[in-house]
Amino acid sequence: MQFQIDATSHHKTRACTIKTAHSTIQTPVFMPVGTQGTVKTLDANDMLELGAKIILGNTYHLYLRPGSKIVKKMGGLHGFSKFPNSFLTDSGGFQAFSLSKNTKQHEDGIMFKSHIDGSKHFFTPQSVLDTQYDLGSDIMMILDDLVALPNTDERIEKSIQRTTKWAQEAITYHKAQQEKGIGVDQNIFAIIQGGTSKKFRQMSAEQLCSLEDYDGFAIGGLSVGEPNVDMYKTVEWTTDFMPKDKPRYLMGVGTPEDLIENIERGVDMFDCVMPTRNARNGTLFTTFGRVNIRKAEFKEDSQPIDPACDCYTCKNFSRAYLNHLYKAGEMTFFRLASMHNIHYYLTLMSKAREAILADNWIEFKEDFYKKREK
User: Fold this and answer.
1) Among 288, 205, 248, 183, which residue's Cα sits nearest to residue 13?
2) Which residue positions are annotated as catalytic (predicted)?
3) What is the DSSP letter of 253?
4) Which of 25, 42, 118, 240 has the fewest CB atoms lying closer than 10 Å?
């Protein structure tokens, strides 16, 4: 991986370039979520038309179905999905949190009970990387111990201890595998934990960032129940302890407002299911805020979703048509709505980058909020 800082603007805001084996990624970047090797309702051509340079795949789900060996046989995620640009794959740590009734943490890893057939599978720092080697992702996340918030100091500290232990095991294993010619073009990121505690976030960040062979670092364990203001304060604090010369990734966040606020706090990379999940539920993101296309007021509205948007959906279809498709339960709605929301997110990141390069971040942010107030 090659990484460079192209420009900085107000506060910690920065624009960077990340080069992997499959694409050049300009930050700030939003990574659409392709859990099963596809962004829901969209294919590789759609993602290329939208300009996506990197999408996220889910290690846990792809391990269970179709199985990482099948994906490897089909040419890895790139050959299997035909998306030629970069993939980032998570580690399964979030699934241990979100599917907590089916999981049990141990000192050496996480026992999963499959949500598909009930079979049991033990994920370790090493096995998670083996799965991701098969998937052929450009950026691999390590196994981490994620906890819900609020939580006890004892449980949060335990999650830090486990995450650091697993990170040390993972980087040692990864370097050994690379010496064997495995995963040579794949990069590895560690995940900082610590809840919303300054003490614990600093502890986790300092422990993990001392492992200098990591290619980048993520902030995990946020947007899991804490107030937004606490999330912002935690990111503000944590990025102070992260290397300036490596990518910073905030996992699972979030709304357009969350992205803007955390870019200002020094974050380069984001992912979230929100644009596609909300699209399927009839919520569309626009320059002027959210639109609930299900409302009767749009039944005879000839305007596009967002008059300021030039996506395929907005250039061709009216709010009235989308309202009709949703009410009729037509699958075409899911595709058109998802295309719009992904386009909105990717365009927001592109405009944020332009503002940083031009050193007018403050004006850009003020304009972002002013339009939403209308």
Assistant:
1) 248
2) 90, 271
3) B
4) 118
Paired with 164 in beta bridges are none
The reply to whether 301 belongs to the active site is no
Q: What is the pTM of this model?
A: 0.96
The sign one gets for the Cα dihedral 143, 147, 152, 153 is positive
**Given 90, 138, 258, 268, which residue is catalytic?**
90
Query: How many Å apart are CA 57 and CA 76, to the nearest integer?
Result: 12
Marked catalytic residue, from 145, 215, 268, 271: 271
Q: Does residue 166 surpass a pLDDT of 70?
A: yes
Specify the 3-state DSSP secondary structure of 255: coil
Residue 302: is its pLDDT beyond 90? Answer: yes
pLDDT at 97 over 70: no
Report whether 192 contacts 220 (CB < 8 A). yes
Q: Which residues are annotated as a binding site for substrate?
A: 90-94, 144, 193, 221
Show the domains of the chain with their CATH numbers: 2-271 (3.20.20.105), 273-361 (no CATH)
Give residue 370's identity as a one-letter amino acid code. K
Q: Establish whether 90 is a catalytic residue.
A: yes
**Angstrom distance (rounded) from CA 161 to CA 144:** 10
